[in-house]
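Our preliminary data section would be incomplete without showing what the modeling component actually yields. Below, a chain of 163 amino acids is followed by its predicted structure, encoded as tokens that our downstream tools consume directly.
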Amino acid sequence: MNAERRNKNRGYQQLLVWQDAVELYGLAWAAVRGWPFELKKLASQSMASSDSVHRNIAEGYCRRTIREYLQHLNVALGSLGETLSGFIAYSRNGQIDSAAFERLDTLIFRLENRLLKLVESLEHKRNANDWTETLIVREDTTEYGADPAIAHDLSILLDGVVE
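Predicted structure:
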């Protein structure tokens, strides 16, 4: 990220879940880009569902409330499931090779687990406190577990987020 263009609204770009989601979009594009005309609609749907994941992570982050962010993370999880379901079907029907599917499945598995842990941690944090509408959250993330990826994402997310 360009240091001259840093602000709190662009903090999602530092999130590992967002970075994984952008990588997923690239892998999905690579998997379907050479498809023949009769499969273009399926290719387009795959691109849209994979594109939705990083967009919802960013949109929720920019909404600046934990409640809205959780809502968008859950939409991202839904889009991730849609993306995986499509690629499972394409793999089983020989429309993508097994190596491409394995790369997609591995990344989706990691991204899904990171998103689920982030949602769980934020829900726990939200439910464990008596939140007010104007509370600004700036806290240490060590209580969220030993996973450094989740702690990294939470420290970025919680800096300046309002419930």
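Strands lie at 136-137, 161-162. The longest helix spans residues 98-128. Preliminary results of this kind motivate Aim 1 of the renewal.
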